[in-house]
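Notebook entry, structure prediction.
Reason for the run: the old model in the group folder had no record of what sequence produced it. Starting over properly, with the input documented here first.
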Amino acid sequence: MNNETKNNLTAFNFLFLWFGAAISIAEIMTGSLIAPLGFKTGFLVILLGHAIGTAILVLGGVIGTEERIPAIMSTRISFGSYGSYLFSILNVLQLIGWTAVMIISGGRSINIISKTLWSFDSINFWSIVIGLLVCLWIVSGSAGFKKINTAAVFLLLILTIVLSFIVFKNGELFTKQATGNMSFGGALELNIVMPLSWLPLIADYTRFAKSKKGAVSGSFIGYFVASSWMYLVGLGAAILFENPDVGAIMTAANLGFAALGIIVLATVTTTFMDVYSAGVTFLNIMPNLNEKTVSVIMGVIGTIVAIVVPIEQYESFLYAIGSVFAPLFAILFTDYFIIKKRTRIQDNLIIDWGAMIVWIIGVVLYYILIKFDFILGSTVPVMILTSLIYILSWRWIENWKYLRKSQNSYQG
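New structure, fully documented this time:
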């Protein structure tokens, strides 16, 4: 994005943006994982988990709007420039991972349809097509981005309605039990961690918001509604058909070529955001590079990973995201909203070792708590505990900072 979109995105723009981002095959597949709970309990978990996760997500968006900086760059507030470089690398890796997940998932779904329509069977071919379309969207630039995205969301709404009709028209859904094991806490965590995975990205967009209220309301409503809806579709499909693949569902409904186009659109719109933000994040490390060029390179790398690496099984991938970014943003939010000792980037702060140590403690806590299978999942307890540790220790660790000697220390 450039000056064409600077500071003029409204609540409706964010609603459409995040609605389109959440309508994805990955969301449907993740919703299918909680099917062992049954539809009624699963429905409750989806609403509760998304309410918590999306609330955490929009907090990151608030910082972006107030400071007019990308998400990963905002981590310099608490961790310094070198700390933000580490998180930039981790975020680029997770975004490339998401790009690969989306591309291979979309490729598999489209391949099911192409086999039915034309007897053409090549998941790699369709994965490459999706990757190319994402790169072409980036190359086309941000001109008309809002209009294109709004039109795409309306078309994606058709996908949501069609899938919902196919899944929910069967009354057996509300009584049939799926096989497998899944605890309430485990299911809740899968709902919280999905919006959490967007946390290192949201400020990349809300920094262009016309108002903070519009950024918060549009982002929350758009993502909460669409993501919850997609989870419910995946939940229902897994219970009824024992196969949540979008391509299989739409092929069974004889939607033919329309299904092909809708799935391509759904995959490209979400993957575009992953690839674009991967490029923005990388610029935090090498700001002199061209944003568009870097984003295209990220798209190419994600496409290659999708073809080479069997990444479609990503439950552990989601937990890894939670372990890294839950304590990270717990510290940032504590600094920014509670302690308020630093509310802007400190140019001479290279790294805050105290904040880094607390973050590492938070990562360890995540993997410890996930084994106990708490009813609230792991993200919420870890964020609370990390925040408490930081609040109790920040005065003691305040001087554990490495500053550039050529500049004076910043006084918050």
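Summary: Confidence is low (pLDDT under 50) at residues 1-5, 407-412.
The old model has been moved to the deprecated folder.
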